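Here is one chain, start to finish.
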Amino acid sequence: MLDYLRAECYKMLHRSYLWMALLITGGLELVLVLLWAWINCELPNNMTVSAGFSMVLYLLSLGYYATAITSDIAFSDQYKYNTLKNEVAYGIPRARIYLGKLFAGVLLSIGACALLLGWYALLCALMLPGDGAALETLKVLGFALLCAFPVWVGAQALYLLCFFSIRGNTAATIVSVCIIALFGQMLTFLSLLVSMPAPGLADALLAVKGLLLTSPLENLTDAIGDWSRVAWAWAVGAGWCVGTTALGLWCFHRREIS
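Its structure:
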């Protein structure tokens, strides 16, 4: 498994797609911080280092969709180029193929996240005025990331399930994004519809919504320091990761690769 994982990481790091995505995202971060620095010229100390750090809290939901990019890089159109067929024909166990790509995608996501957050923090520290609250803001951000990490990994496992199960990375990405972005809104809407005639059913629908990947990050700024939110996020993320991985392995073992 380690040799396969090293090979997958080597391939990912040599794909221009990865570096283009990092360059574009890093450039957008630079433009954003430059904009805040320009605003400070007009309104002094309007945007401080701690305020810049705290903005990350409102962007955590983007992680659900950023993992689509890292999953796409890890899977890399295997059906389109028949590379998956070659790996199976070579005799590599299917479980190793599936788990290797999942682990490689997660490692890539962690590395990319650390790189982009580090670059953003450096830009804020260099271009925005300090206010003495940066350390406390970093602690808050660390707590938020502790909640976000497990559900991001759960989203990554969902994307990989769809990539292995659906031919075409674009179609697989659309299905995954719809599950992540729309399912919770549908349940909320249905619960409102039935709240008057069937309040018990509405409560059941909201309970199901609480098991979705997006739920632990909803209103997270109001739950900073609440460690039960962390436990909830890890339980939801682990449930989705284990469940989608088990389903993906089962489907992949049954799939005829042609």
